Amino acid sequence: MVTAPTTVRGVPANMGAQSRPSWRESGVAYLYLAPAIVLLTAFNFFPAAFAFYISLFKWGLVQEEFVGLQNYVRLLTNEDFWASLGISVWYVILAIPAEMGLGLLIAYLLFQPLRGRGAYRTAYFLPYITSTVAAGLVWRWLYKRDGGLLNEILAALGLPTLMWLDEPDGVFQMIAQAVDTTLPAWLAGPSLALVAICVMSVWHYLGFYVVIYLAGLGNIPKETYEAARIDGAGEWQTFRYVTLPLLSPTSFFLLITGTIGALQAFNQIYVMTGGGPIDTTRTVLMLIFKTFYQQTRVGYGSAMAFVLTAMILVLTWVNFSLVGRRVNYD
Q1: Which of 1, 71, 101, 124 is nearest to 303 (CA)?
Q2: What is residue 258's predicted lDDT score, i.e. its pLDDT?
Q3: Which of 119, 128, 146, 150 is the most exposed place for a label (fewest CB within 10 A)?
Q4: Does residue 255 form part of some domain?
Q5: Is residue 47 classed as helix, strand or coil in its secondary structure?
Q6: Which structural domain range is residue 147 located in?
Q7: Selection from 176, 122, 180, 140 nearest residue 274 by Cα
């Protein structure tokens, strides 16, 4: 006689036990994960934990006295830190919208059936695989005050040359001065040197945005475009009501990664200006570098790094909370 298995609410009682992996299967799974766990622990988790430990001490070349959260309290009242944070915010505002807007425009054009579009795609991606240090050196020569290519072009056109990377004045202030108007200091805007660095950054990272947007465009079903055209939608209407909504996950991904990357920009700024002139391109990461390595205030620099990390996490959470709700994943 065969008896039916005991059931609980229609589910066999032994089903949960049968679905649980054995200790041997779990051990094999963890064994596969072990190399990644070891690498993450050695190069991410342990350095981060040790950096937080350092931030709790007054630490020069060697460990000195324990100060607790004093480095963090001093940091919140440090005018240099807040000024550098403002410069970092300007860098994000100038670079990210330009990179995303131009990347989408160029990707949309290259997605069309153009002759030789493979060569164009490669050409736009080449700057991205170029070292930021090498690219920064080339652009520093382009911006050179005497003999630089851009000033030579301006001189040939009969226009006044610019100081570019040596100009600490804000661009809004310079525009106002050109039309004989004065602006208050808080409306001066980012320095011309910072704008020049942002132009170089847009040129360098544009290829990455183009490639990601091309991948996003390729994932949109052709049937969706055909249905829109059958309904009488024009090119602009198709782009606005079909392409943009279906590209929202791609745009959201680029917004998050681009913002995090811009707040951590270092190489091009260090090579092109070193944080000058008059600290008008000294972002938070540049300030951390100078505090940690040049002034050897290791504990204070570590506290700055953790505050910057916390701000990036908060900004990412805000983006997920506000912008993420509008992303269309259908």
Answers
A1: 71
A2: 93
A3: 146
A4: yes
A5: helix
A6: 93-274
A7: 140
Chain center to CA of 86:
16
Q: Give the CATH number for residue 261.
A: 1.10.3720.10
Residue 329: its pLDDT value, please? 66
Average model confidence (pLDDT) for the chain? Answer: 87
Beta-bridge partners for 57: 66
Give the span between the Cα atoms of 228 and 314, in whole angstroms.
39
Q: Which two tokens mark 59? A: 């630490």
Classify residue 208: in a domain, yes or no.
Answer: yes
Tokens 């782009």 correspond to 239
What is the pLDDT at residue 21? 64
Q: Which alpha helices (DSSP H) does 61-161 contain, by range?
A: 70-76, 79-110, 117-125, 132-142, 149-156
* Alpha-carbon separation of residue 301 from 101, 262, 284, 312 (angstroms): 35, 19, 10, 17
| Ranges 58-62, 138-142, 265-269: which has the least confidence | 58-62
Torsion sign (Cα): 306, 310, 316, 320: positive
| Residue positions counted in the chain | 330
Q: What are residue 191's DSSP bridge partners?
A: 170
Whether residue 5 lies inside any domain: the answer is no
Instruction: Report the domain count for the chain.
Output: 1
Whether 316 is in a domain gets the answer: no
C-alpha 330/C-alpha 328 separation (Å) is: 6
- Spell out the alpha helix ranges (H) of 20-78: 23-40, 46-55, 70-76
Q: Structure tokens of 219?
A: 């994932």
Residue 225 binned pLDDT confidence (cut-offs 50, 70, 90):
confident
Q: Alpha helix (H) ranges present in the chain?
A: 15-19, 23-40, 46-55, 70-76, 79-110, 117-125, 132-142, 149-156, 171-178, 192-218, 222-230, 235-238, 244-246, 248-263, 267-272, 284-289, 298-322
CB burial of 54-76 (b: ≥16 within 10 Å; e: otherwise) equals: bbbbebeeeeeeebeebbbeebe
